[in-house]
Amino acid sequence: MKKISNSPEETLELGKSLGISLGAGDIILLFGDLGAGKTCFTQGICYGLELDKASYIRSPTFTLINEYQGKLPIYHIDLYRIETQEEIFSLGLEEILYNQGVTIIEWAEKLRSPKKPDKLILNIQDRLEINIKITSDSQREFTFNPVFSEPRSFPDFTLL
Predict the structure, then answer these.
(1) Residues 10-48: pLDDT tens digits?
(2) Spatial CB neighbours of 44, under 8 Å, sequence gap ≥ 6
(3) What is the layout of strands, in order, in the sheet containing 73-78?
(4) pTM: predicted TM-score of the whole model, two decimal places
(5) Which of 23, 84, 94, 125 sits at a 20 to 30 Å CA gap from 100?
(6) The domain 2-148 is classified under which CATH number: 3.40.50.300, 3.90.650.10, 3.40.50.620, 3.40.109.10?
(7) Are strands 102-106 and 73-78 parallel, antiparallel or unpaired?
(8) What are the φ/ψ torsions at residue 151 (nearest 5 degrees)?
């Protein structure tokens, strides 16, 4: 499924619509270039998960992992500064990925196995992959690719 956002406000609302539908253990993988809107979209997801709107949600580029408390724990991970898969393994992400919270990972490209690019490291199976493409200064194209062992429903983004 694809959705076009024409502004940061629309990106925020798109994220919020998704966040409302998420549950314990969900993993969201965000792919896209620098400035594509991954953090803005994440902010919307957090608001959809009932995080207080006064909370400051920023990309954890230097801290690598931010934790927020909405209706569920929210783990926001940024792999931008990670250079090797050994660094990813040293973060201990398995404890975060397989808990009762929602995990959102920016720069998920770094989770691809070098020997099998169609596979992800850390045994990530069920997930929602979202590719964000910059189509103009103000427009972004979101492509949603659910990868789940059992059928899942997500919001009807056509209503936005």
Answers:
(1) 999 999 999 999 999 999 999 999 999 999 999 999 999
(2) 11, 12, 13, 14, 15, 16, 17, 18, 19
(3) 2-5, 140-147, 127-134, 27-32, 102-106, 73-78, 65-69
(4) 0.90
(5) 84
(6) 3.40.50.300
(7) parallel
(8) -60, 140
CA distance 14 to 33: 18
Assigned token pair, 71: 């209706």
What Cα–Cα distance (Å) separates residue 109 from each residue in 106, 145, 152, 153?
8, 14, 23, 24
pLDDT tens digits, residue range 119-155? 888 888 899 999 999 999 999 999 999 988 887 776 6
Give me the residue spans of the domains in the chain: 2-148
